[in-house]
Amino acid sequence: MSPLFVFLFVLSFSSLINLSKSNNFTSQNSSIIGNTIGGNKWISIASTIVSSSGNFEMGFFTPGNNSNYYIGIWYKKISKQTIIWVANRETPISIYEMDFAQFKVDNGNLVLTNGTRHIIWSTNINYTTNFNNSQVVATLYDDGNLILSNNSTNHLWTSFDHPSHTFMPGSKFGYDKRTRLKQVLTSWKNANDPSPGPFTHEVDMENKYIGQGVNMWNHSVVYWNSGPWTGNNFTGVPYQPNPMFNYTYVNNEDEVYYMYNFFNPSLISNFIMDVNGQTKQLLWMDSTNDWNVFYTDPKQVCDVYSYCGSFGICNEVNSTSTCDCLSGFKPKFEKDWKLSSFSSGCMRKTSLNCGDFGEKDRFWRYKNMRLPTNNESLRVGNEVECENGCLEDCDCVGYAYGNGNIGCLIWKREMLNLQQLAQDNVNGSTIYVRLASSEFSSNQDQKQTSTKLKIAIPIGVIAALLILSCFFIYYRKRRNSKVKEGSTKFHRQNTEGEGLELIDIQDDDIEVPFFSFESILVATDDFSEQNKLGQGGFGPVYKGIFSGGREIALKRLSSHSGQGINEFKNEVMLIARLQHRNLVRLLGYCIQSSEKILLYEYMANKSLDTFIFDRKRSAILDWRKRIEIIEGIAKGLLYLHHDSRLRIIHRDLKTSNILLDEELNPKISDFGLARVVEGKITQANTNKVVGTYGYMAPEYAIDGLFSIKSDVFSFGIVILEIISGRRNTGFFHQEEASNLLGLAWRLWTEDKSMDLVDQKLHESCNKEEAIKLINIGLLCVQEDPKDRPNTSNIIMMLGSENSNIISLPRPNQPAFMTRKCGNNNNTTSSSNAKSDGVSNNQLTVTIEMGR
């Protein structure tokens, strides 16, 4: 390794460490490149732009303890980082992709590309007239507005027209009647997450007042309206015009909007849609070095609809916290609540019992409450009938009776907009919340329970502290006695059945967190069948929901799978080090007794084979999406073979090991059979052949030789399966009993390759593009590994628009063209491959080879 390479590596690594300590300001480690981007100037992790007078700065930032990166604009001259605009609120960039991320002008648009040069955010301007795109620049002005233009007067796009959560002085807040573009302020999810939250603020276009008012929404519910504009103020806002501001209202045939400016331009102020659902006017105070709030609506946070979420109580009277959960409930997302973002609400600690067995549910009483919304009425004669009516309905979660002659009201599924009112508030009502019987102490009412708790809690705390102290001393002694071992050890039954083999995973090798088995039991509901996603040779896969609502897939190792234990060790020690958008991420692991569990990011659409081989679901994957999937798999392979810290050979690439995320982006998974080869070595051998019939390269199946070219062979099969919608194995075509490779080769030699393409794609696909992909697929499955292209060449062939059937090399005959002769069971192959011990199915197999 050259000294120059070592120097550059150390320099970049040191910069990354310094960046993580920069208190969220990218600019502290960045160079300023002026106030414009365009041409050969763009914003990267190492650069920012600053407005001409230094009022505002634009670059990459990480809010709070969030590890993701966003492109945004913030105040330059104040000490407290205050973001006024964010571009990629819904598409953050991870720290692993930041080295090559760029915010730039491309083809007349502002675009944000991630580490793999994919566009994840764009201004999406469709031009109707031609002009010189090379002259398009984006300029950050001293009012905080980012303007994309091709000259000083022709504004193509502005950030003021597309606000995030801030309404800036001098910007318009309204609606363009021609383009139907509306300015909407959307809250952050929480103080550390700028992704869109539930609260929005926008002009009311439903009521055609002389002067339109403005609304605040919690999703689809309006909880505040200003009333119409009178010319001086809004009728629903009890504030006098502020002499600091100059308000403007415009309503003509083209647009309707509001605007405000300061009479004193030296003042620093903005108007935000806050994370708590309130709008606030802020003024920067140099004396306190902080923002001063001098206007808020609604005045009380409890007036924000469902501020505390489902089953949450808002209490601004006598509570240490504005939001609390009802008894028998707990915060749904604990992390959000710690950041004072309560809209996710609460969830039950114990499920209700709706049936004829077990103890019946009971009701907990709450006095002086604001009645929740979304109630239904029951026609009953008394309160007992009201209570029984709720108990008989499995969806009923609570009731109220006789409060102000309301009769019987019930609530189904959830209670929203709960508020604890003061004792002297005449509008308070009594409600009864349904809980499992186990939430109550037998033969005790609520008052007695509360009194005993007041006595028991201090005694319990003292006892608990004593027990914890003893446990801590014991734990320290036990930990000190084991610290020298330096590894996590577990036993497995070896594959020969010769007793127990000890396997060590060194602590330094583990780069993902350990999950407790108890947390996994909670997340999967004790591995319930309802949460089971599938079954493999290694064991079952489950869906788990962890704190914060994060969905994770769990692979639970079967105690009967010797191969599965090797997979476990391999993935924990190896795959956790790999980070690429086209690889499924390993998020953690668990070892407890005989339980060995791997935790992955959850893929909502499961695997690729569930789409392309399904008659109905395959229609979802149009031609363009299939090409994107092929390209994504190729990029993942390129990373494994060439770009990652380790050179990885997957050895089991197949459509069932390609998972699809919510946007149908492909991610290579299941690295249990993967192998690492050192340095520039591209080939190795093994005495044990593992893989899947129909995807294994001939040199691997026969001689145990595996290489990056054996992965390329598998990739060629995957390409042909994606294009044709047919499996390579278990496939018979008319009388020839040929597999998919045999059919593809025959159609190629007869110049009928389009017959291989899935019939559903014929109308949408490009013929030259289809033939090019078939050509690439056949190049990948050639019998001699030396003839197959490597992954970097495949990327070039896939990405080049000029790569067609004429310019690409012509393939040689593929391997494994099995055929049946007559009605007997004899088979032949172009490579005379042995098929002993390999089953004709989609299961991963192991073949012991004598060497």
Can I get a quick summary?
The protein contains 13 helices and 50 strands. The protein has 851 residues and is an alpha+beta fold. Strand 21 (269-273) and strand 22 (279-285) form a beta hairpin.
Overall description:
Helix content is 20%, strand content 28%. By secondary structure, it is α+β, with helices and mostly antiparallel strands. Strand 10 and strand 11 (146-149) form a beta hairpin. Helix 8 (623-643) runs antiparallel to helix 10 and helix 8 (623-643) runs antiparallel to helix 13 (791-799). The longest helix has 37 residues, at 446-482. It is globular, with a radius of gyration of 32 Å. The protein starts with a helix and ends with a strand. 36% of the residues are buried.
Q: Tags for this entry?
A:
globular, transferase, Phosphorylase Kinase, domain 1, single chain, Transferase(Phosphotransferase), domain 1, 20% helix, 5-stranded mixed sheet, 8-stranded mixed sheet, Hepatocyte Growth Factor, 28% strand, nucleotide-binding, Receptor-like serine/threonine-protein kinase, alpha+beta
